[in-house]
Amino acid sequence: MKIVRFTTGFATEYGVLYEDAVIGIEGSPFEAVKETHRHYRISDVRLLPPCVPSKVVALGVNYRSHAKEMNDRPPDEPLLFIKPPSSVIGPEDKIIYPPSSKRVDYEGEIGVVIKSLARQVSREEAGQHILGYTCVNDVTARDLQAKDKQWTRAKGFDTFCPIGPCIETDLFPFSLKLETYLNGELKQQAHAGQLIFPVEELVSFISHVMTLLPGDVIATGTPEGIGPMQPGDTIEVKIEGIGTLRNYVVKPEDSSNKE
Fold this sequence. Notes:
This protein is mainly β. The chain has two domains: about 1-45, SH3 type barrels (Roll), CATH 2.30.30.370; about 50-255, Fumarylacetoacetase-like, C-terminal domain (Fumarylacetoacetate hydrolase, domain 2, Alpha-Beta Complex). It is about 10% helix and about 40% strand. It contains four helices and 20 strands. It has helices spanning about 65-70, 140-150, 150-155, 200-205, and strands at about 1-5, 10-15, 20-25, 35-40, 45-50, 55-60, 80-85, 90, 95, 105, 110-115, 130-135, 140, 160-170, 175-180, 185-190, 215-220, 225-230, 235-240, 245-250. The strands form three sheets. Strands 1, 2, 3, 4, 5, 6, 7, 8, 11, 12, 14 and 17 form a twelve-stranded mixed sheet that branches. The longest helix is centred in the C-terminal third of the chain and has 9 residues, at about 200-205.
């Protein structure tokens, strides 16, 4: 099932995405999903970020290939950082290139969407708290990351966390294939089976640090192939079975993301 969050221009709601249509659901997908009689053509709605996270918990250096390209040692434990909810945008939205940075990179990632409150859960219990999977772009001001020696500013700018286009609830995480395209050129390619710390371990580990709430997103880390974007570029994160998260890089004066 592909869960989306969308607007018709008058209201915002959750729905189930079919090929060229969206069917509204009652309430939110974090409870039982019950379809309504509200049917929309996909061309008549605007897809929004598929959830409204209280936080995006992201992983640094969770592929050995990325550790090698960054000259980093793979961590002994998951390396966590947080992207604020104000950084979240949806599919087809604009990534604003901040004037304070000279290098802004894409980082395509597999996103895990939390279904129910998770506090100190075991690895075996982790799956019960997962609603599904989505695409994430962990946009990073690479020069500011190096300058600051920590990652809050570099990864926390408004628009630096595109998420979408949907939450797929019927996928086995080990099988997920990730690709990132810059202006149509393949830049990143990886498989969830290559994660140093797999999904269930991440949910359990993070839940022993902080309580995960319904709608929170875990960005599981990026593989090798990161690189810079420039205003005018189109960046796409594709995950087989989920879809394509497409965004456009712009200068601040060209930005207009409206929900």
